[in-house]
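Would you mind writing out a protein's amino acid sequence and the numbers that encode its backbone to help me picture the idea?
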Amino acid sequence: MIPFGARLRTAMDTRGPLCVGIDPHPSLLTDWGLDDTVAGLERFTRTTVEALADRVAVLKPQSAFFERFGSRGVAVLETAVAEARQAGALVLMDAKRGDIGSTMAAYAATYLDPGSPLFSDAVTVSPYLGFGSLRPALDLAARSGSGVFVLALTSNPEGAEVQRATAADGRALAQLMLDRMAAENAGAEPMGSVGAVVGATLGDAGVDLAINGPLLAPGIGAQGATPADLPAVFGAAVGQVVPSVSRGVLRHGPDPAALRASAERFAEEIRAAVSAADGVSGQKGERGGA
């Protein structure tokens, strides 16, 4: 299996640097003219997958919106994961799991074991029981060619009270986690498979984001960030960013053509912002070398 980091780099280069969330909020189901039922969930999810899975780099279903319907909702999620991957999209399961020991190992097996019905290309996890608690997920991901996205600096304001706190060695806790991710990715080419979640709404991350891995950037669209904000937040690491848009694309449903057009607009805007930032960085490098 080709490692997730390499597969993600290829997908971003060929399909565009965009992750679209599949977040079946009750309000979105209503906006689509659907009932807040399993049938509505299935129609919403199938329409989104059929419209986007053959063209966007990453689809990111939010597990909670499926789990709230119990086993029937999880069955919809299983089908969506399989059909999205079959169409060529990488699936990032947004589950934000975090625990210790055998429980963490069970979470890892759920999303990162190729034999699981919910096997995904990557999963989001929380490190705030200690980065070492993620070892079962990190190890299984490495064996299965999957990826792990670790919460670092999230877009919700409440996150700062934990993530910006000072660790025993004086580093911000988020920086400590990022440094651990960098160690996991050391030597990987073109980039590692352990990513960080860093909100696009932060303005200036204020941390070293050079982890040699992908940086998932939620917050674009409905939360207020735009593609033009990415260079200020991510600086020299902007080329590793996987911007994530959910409601900004999904609000254009249920028309598949409108969903596709919205995703393509975001991808082009992101490409332009990253290209402009790379150009400025290159010019600075040339002046510095002179």
